[in-house]
Structure formats: C-alpha cells, structure tokens
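Q: What does the predicted 3D structure of Serine/threonine protein kinase look like?
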Amino acid sequence: MFYQGQVLDGAYQIIEEIGQGGTGVVYLAWHLRLQKYIVVKRIKDGFAERANVRVEVDILKSLHHTCLPQVYDFFQLGSEVYTVMDYIEGRSLQSYLNEGYRFEERKLVFWMKQLCSVLIYLHGQKPAIWHSDIKPDNIMITPQGNVCLIDFNVSLDSSHAAQVLGYSQYYAAPEQYAKAEAMNSHRGDDILLDGRMDIYSLGASFYRVITGVVPAGNQEEIWPAAALSLPYSNAFCRIVDKAMAHDRRKRFSSAQALMNALENMYRFDEGYGRLLRKKLLLYAGCGCMVLAGTLLTVYGSARTAGERYEEQFVKFQESVETGNTEQISREGLQLLNSGTFEGILEKNPEEKAEIFYQIGNAEYAKENYAEARRYFSYARETNPDEPAYWRDEAAAAIKSGDLEGGNQILRQARREGIDSDNLTYMEAEAAAAAGDWESAAGYAGQLTALPGELCVWACLLQEEILRQNGTAQERAELLKMVMEKEPGILWVRQTALAWLRLAGEEPSDSRKQEYFREAGACYEEISRREGLVFEDRVNLAVICEQTGDYEEGIQILEALTGDEREDYRVWMHIACLEYLRQMSLPAGERDFADMQQYGRRAGRAWQLAGSPEDPGMDTMESFMREGEEP
C-alpha cells in the first residue's frame, strides 16, 4: 500500500488507489517527467511469481492501438512488480450499467466494432496475445465517446499459452472455468485456450448490456438474447448470442469474423420463427480503388519477353477493371516474381509501382489491411511522386489499427509536399479512426465538390461516418451524389453495397424497398458497362428475392451453376428462392422437391468448401425443414 504523494522509482508520484484489476492493484499517479496522469499497476504476488513478467511487459510496450492504453515502463520494488501505462479518462461501462443506463443500438455496435479491432490487433501479433479478462469493468468509455480496453493480462499463444489467467466470474468463457478447475485439482489437462475465449467474454459483456442479466460462463444454458423482448434488432441480438455460444466451435471463429458480422448485420436478420419475412445473405467484398484498363488476351510462347510482359500486364489490368481481387493478387505477383520481367520492371518503375498498388487495393478489398499497407508502401517507395500511394498507405495503416503509423505517414507526406486534397483525405481517415466524427466529416466535406475519384471516395467516407451519428436520409443523399459523379465500376459496386447495407438496417418496408431499388439500379449500370462479376449477380438475385421476383432471381443464379468452382452459395440461394417461390403459391400447389434437391447440393458444396460460418446456411436448412413438414 502506497501513501498519497509517495514517489516510486524516482518518477511516479502516487495520487490514490483507484481499483484492483484481475491481476493487480491499480493506482492513479503523476508522471513527473512527462507531466501527465498515468496508472501504476502492481502485479499481484501469485501472478508475478508465475509469469514471465518482464517479457510480457516488453510485449505490452510494443503495442500501439487507439483503443488500448500505452504501456510506458516496468520496474520492481523489492519483490513487487509494477507497470506504468496511460491513464484513460472516462468511466467504465460497468459504472453506467450500475446506474441503469440504456444505450442505443448504433452506439453499442460502434463500441463492439472498436473492441473487435483491438482483438484483431492483439490476436494478430506474433505470437498472438489473448486479453483473457474482458468485462464491463475493463471497458472504458472516454469523454469522446470511444472505448478503451484496459487491464489485460498478457497470455501468449505458445505451448504454455494461458496457463495462468486472470479471468472474471460471469464473463469468462466455459473453457476458462474448465481449465481452472483442472489446474486446481492438479489434474493433467489438455484444454488449450485460444482467441475464442475473448470472443465469448466480449459477447457476454454486451449480453449484460442489452439484457440487464449477468451471464455465467460455467452454465451451459443461457437464455438467448434473440428470444427475449428487447429494444434491439434481432440481428444484433443473434450476433451477441453467437459470440457467447457455450460450445466455442459455434462461436465466431475469430475477431475478424465477428467484425464482419457487425459490418454486415443484415446477414443475421433472419428471425427464428419468421423466416419468410427475412432476407437472404448478400455476398460481396469491399470496394477498392482501381484504374481503368483495356482487354486484350494473346497467348503464345514465340514472342519476346517484352511482348509477353505487355500481354500479361494487359490481362492484369482486365482483372483490375472487373475488381476480381483473387486474380489481381495472383496475376500481379506473377508479374513481379517473374525473373523474365525483372529487367523490364526496373526500367518501368511507374508500372511496377502500379502493380504493387493494385495488389494493395485487392488486399484492402479483402480487409487484409496489414497486407494492403505493405503493398501500398512498396508502391510509394517505388514511385514516391504519386499522391494516391501515400494516401492509401496511411488509410490502410489506420484501418489496421495503427493510428500512430497512419499519422506518421501523413506527417511525412506533408513534408514531401503531397497536394492538399490528398492530405485532407488522410486527415479525414485519421479523425474517423480516432472517433472524432465531427472533424472527419469536416475534412471529407471539403472534398465533395471536387471532380474525379477523390470526391467519390470522400462521399463514401462521409456515408461511413454517418453510420455512426447520422440519419438514413443523409446517407442516402450522399450515395445519390456518388452516382451523379458517374464513378468507375468499382465505385458503383461499392455504392450498391452501401445501398444494400442501408436497406438491411431500415425498419420501414417502403424505404427498404426504395433502397433495394437503388442498389438494383447500380447493378444495372454495372451490367450496362459489361462489368458484372460473380458477387454482383448473387446480389442481383437477392434483390429479386426482396422485391418478390423469385423466378428471375433463380434464373440469374442458374446462369452461375456452370461455374467450375461449384460455389455453394449459388445453390443455397437457389434453394431459398425456390422455397419462397413455392410459399407464394396456394397451399395445394406447392412442391418442395426441387428446393430439397438444391439444398442438398448446397450442403455438399458447403462441406467441400470447409463448412465456413454462414448464417445463410442456417436459413436454408430451416426452409428445408419447413418444406418437409406435411
């Protein structure tokens, strides 16, 4: 116990004890050198003895994320171990719950996504880091309305991973309880913990927020949030329920999978007893920036290296034009890794940089932001005169959770004299990542009157910002503005996805139909330009389902069944559409035989694909059971 005014390690003046975390006692202190409030945390004796604390703190010091406190120092006084980290202003989520606060869904989704970004960052470290003690007490709400995840015990993904954990009753995953019991009884156990325990604890924390009920991780039966009468959407409740599934195999497989669900909540909007009024899954990747290319495919081996390079580069541009991310990455790497073309690329640094850049765009579209940043960096180093490379490297750094890295690129770009418009966009991205929505909207708003690509991107960024604090009407107006700019195909595709997202969130049937029609118009424009890809056709079929044009939707999907990859999603959607088509007929005329056949084919293809997590398959199976009933 320290007294007020006591100075530790010659640098940290104690102000008061402010709490006890899962693995230590916490003091508010004043950093005499930095002249700022900090937190000094004393590691409890048992944990200090059993953990390699110095190694763990070194790992903590290397972490940089906007939603994590920065760790500054590590020191020992006698046998006691202390860490020094940022003091996070604000209040814990638990303190709000104690006072009976209710939060609107939009805010909860925003916070949950911020916490997912933290877990993606931590779990993506080498070795991976598990938090192991997520609960409302450890989720701070800052004065700016953002979250910060505090007080985590480092657990490394190794052969001895998570042998000592500071978990909390009620919010710990069932496997954490099981492991603790095995260790307490001195039994040899083979329970290996992984990042899914953090997924559980995050889900349990938000279950407490939306239901008011404190969960218990060691109880197998917890009443699903989706089965309760709550002032939250069925989709959000189902996501929370899946995150805290007792069987970890039924949870989201990763923080990224949970983030994807939150980004596409309409995919979880199928009710348990109201499947006919719910929509099917929509499949598409995020938009990415591309340059228009030309179509020319020539084969032959009896040509010069220059001719073969030109042919492959044009083929690469074709993939860029259609937005086929897998082909972009594969064909781009083939160009870069070919020893035959090495000399050509060295003499054409602009083209080499553009290949790097488009691979970065493909990775960005797949939400592999760290990889995207790497390729954007290669592009920028190869051709530092192109402002877009600086801009997108900063954006990818920020999206990957490295706000400081993004700001560092921004500062360097400013020193290099990058034009003000691209700098303004980088400022907008940084402000949005920091949760400063007002500033982000202000920066993006400066660009919406410009011609060209940057204006389109700014409008789409503003629409993303308005998801947090704007209205559906404001978002719709921005999306209409994008189409008035006559954007390229991939921007049209991204706008279509935004309309679909807006439709999935809209409770009003009339507006929902309006937004689906707007999405359909975008895909019609893509079709007019002969740029429809697989995901576009699937989404067109889903729009047909929403508007009741089941037969046209089936025809669109049947045109994809000749695809050699035998994508299970095609048969899944055909089965669902056929079910809905039959349900639109009089009861005596219904025949579900074709639907059952389509469903079985989808199931086989789904298993061959590795049985990926897909709520659409749950919907289809429910339809199949309904079709079997007399």
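A (community wiki): The structure tokens above were generated from the sequence. The chain has a mean pLDDT of 81. The first helix runs from residue 45 to 50.
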